[in-house]
Amino acid sequence: MRPELKRRLTRVWHPQESTDELFLVVHGSSPFELRDGNVVLRPGQLFVAPRGVAHCPISNGEVHALLIEPAGVVNTGDAGGTLTAAYDDSLI
Do 72 and 17 meet the contact criterion of CB atoms below 8 Å apart? Predict the structure, then answer.
């Protein structure tokens, strides 16, 4: 699992083909765009992006969030680009 706190969520549409992703918002507000509607998370709320479902996390300001996914999962799925985080195995 990889914790991500105080990270500006990026506007990149992507699915995770091999796993679900769990987002828990600790501080701030974070909309998640989905192809069939949007979800807005507030502190204490969580969202599970199911495997294979394209989603686009957004932040309109600073968001403190915990992202839980298996080690080695790329944060932008197959979308890639400049917003893809480097893999950090020091957290395993």
Answer: no
Q: Of 80, 45, 61, nearest to 9 (Cα)?
A: 61
The answer to whether the CB of 62 falls within 8 A of the CB of 44 is no
Going by C-alpha positions, the residue among 91, 44, 84 that lies closest to residue 70 is 91
| Structure-token pair, residue 16 | 């995770």
Partners of 76 in beta bridges:
none
Residues 66, 11: Cα–Cα separation, whole Å: 17
Using alpha carbons, list the distances in angstroms from residue 62 to 10, 26, 34.
11, 11, 21
Q: What is the pLDDT of residues 41-84, one digit of tens each?
A: 999 999 998 888 888 888 778 888 888 877 766 666 666 666 56
Distance CA 22, CA 2 (A): 11
The pTM score is 0.68
Q: CB of 25 within 8 A of CB of 64?
A: yes
